[in-house]
Amino acid sequence: MVTPHPPALDDSETTLFVGHPALIPGISTLLLAIVTLGLWLIVAYFKSIAISYRITNKRIVMETGVFGKRLEQIDLYRVNDYTVERPFSQRLMGTGNLLLKTMDRTTPELAVTGIKTDVVALYEQLRRATELDKAQRSVRVVDYE
């Protein structure tokens, strides 16, 4: 008699996005850079390099800080809801925001802002990866209302 084994967890991690927020995420930042004769770009540069995102099919890692670093990680099975924001000024610059609501106690909301990528395609990949990760871990979210 053969006893069935539970499905093995797939430990392979695939990177979906790695990067920083765009130096000029929207038209307002571009206009500010022009008005200040480019001096605002120095501030924008440090704001951009102070945040680093790494999104995989298993987790989201956000590292903040220039000198002192803080690392925040959220496993995808903890993500409950996604919001894609693409304001007009960001659409013109090819950037967007991805807002995540999670079951994580320390980070109930995570904003991946100003990234220069196809945010809608990233959302679709992330949503599929989240559902797959929840299924592999046998996680079910129950909404009481």
Look at the structure and give the CATH class: Mainly Beta
Q: Tally the beta strands.
A: 7
The averaged pLDDT comes out at 91
Q: Report the CATH architecture.
A: Roll
**How many distinct domains?**
1
Strand order of the largest sheet: 1-2-3-4
In the CATH hierarchy, the third-tier topology is known as: PH-domain like
Write down the secondary-structure element order. Answer: EHHEEEEHEEH
Q: What's the end-to-end separation, in Å?
A: 46 Å
Overall SS class:
alpha+beta
Give the overall shape: elongated
Percent range for helical residues?
Answer: 25-40%
Report the biggest beta sheet as strand number plus sense, adding barrel if it closes: 4 strands, antiparallel
Q: Determine the number of helices (DSSP H or I, runs of at least 4 residues).
A: 4
The oligomerization state is single chain
Quote the beta fraction.
25-35%
Low-confidence stretches: 1-5
**Cα-atom radius of gyration:** 18 Å
